[in-house]
C-alpha cells in the first residue's frame, strides 16, 4: 500500500494540472518507488488524463538542461525527437489524451497539504493572540 504522503502529493499535482485526483494512484506508487530507489530528483514521468504512466523521462546535466523521454519509450511511440516538449505532442496524438510531465521532486519533496494547513493554522493562532 502506498504511503499517504505520496498519495496526497500525487493527488495535488494532478488536481493542479486540471485532472481528476482520483486518478493519482499510479503516480503515487511511482513516486514512492522513485524515492526508495534514490532516483534523480529531475527524473520524471509523463502521466495521461486517466492517470496512466506513459513514459519515463530524464534530465541532462549539461550546461543547457533539458528533459527527454527514455530511448526505449521513444522507440515504442516512434517519436521524431524525444525532448519532452516534442514528445508530449506526439504521444498525445497517439493515445488521444492530454499529458503532464511530473518530476520526482514534485511528488517526493516538501510538506504535505495537511502539514501546510497545520502550519498556516498555527500562524493564524499566534497572530490572533
What's the multimeric state?
Answer: single chain
Strand arrangement within the widest β-sheet reads 3-2-1-4
Helix % is 40-55%
Computed over alpha carbons, the radius of gyration is 17 Å
Instruction: Count every helix, treating DSSP H or I runs of 4 or more residues as helices.
Output: 6
Q: Which structural class best describes the helix and strand composition?
A: alpha+beta
Number of folding domains?
1
**Mind describing the biggest β-sheet?**
4 strands, antiparallel
The average pLDDT value, as a whole number, equals 90
Overall 3D shape: elongated
Range of strand content = 15-25%
Distance linking N and C termini: 42 Å
Runs with pLDDT <50, length 5+?
none
The run of helices and strands is HHEEEHHEHH
Kindly state the number of beta strands: 4
Report a brief summary of the structure:
The protein has 129 residues and is of the alpha+beta class. Helix content is 50%, strand content 16%.
Explain the overall architecture.
The chain is α+β, with helices and mostly antiparallel strands and 129 residues long. It has one domain. 50% of the residues lie in helices and 16% in strands. The chain has six helices and four strands. The protein has helices spanning 4-16, 25-37, 71-76, 84-95, 104-108, 113-127, and strands at 44-48, 53-59, 67-69, 99-103. A four-stranded antiparallel beta sheet has the order 3-2-1-4. A hairpin with a 7-residue loop joins strand 2 (53-59) and strand 3 (67-69). The protein is elongated and about 60 Å long. The model has no long low-confidence stretch (mean pLDDT 90).
Amino acid at each position: 500500500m502506498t504511503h499517504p504522503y505520496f498519495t496526497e502529493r500525487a493527488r495535488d499535482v494532478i488536481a493542479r494540472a486540471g485532472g481528476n485526483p482520483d486518478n493519482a494512484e499510479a503516480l503515487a506508487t511511482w513516486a514512492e518507488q522513485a524515492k526508495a530507489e534514490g532516483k534523480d530528483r529531475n527524473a520524471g514521468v509523463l502521466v495521461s488524463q486517466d492517470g496512466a504512466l506513459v513514459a519515463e523521462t530524464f534530465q541532462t546535466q549539461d550546461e543547457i538542461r533539458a528533459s527527454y523521454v527514455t530511448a526505449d519509450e521513444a522507440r515504442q511511440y516512434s517519436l521524431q525527437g524525444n525532448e519532452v516538449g516534442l514528445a508530449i505532442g506526439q504521444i498525445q496524438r497517439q493515445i488521444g489524451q492530454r499529458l503532464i510531465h511530473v518530476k520526482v521532486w514534485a511528488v517526493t519533496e516538501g510538506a504535505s497539504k495537511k502539514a501546510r494547513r497545520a502550519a498556516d493554522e498555527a500562524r493564524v493562532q499566534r497572530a490572533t493572540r
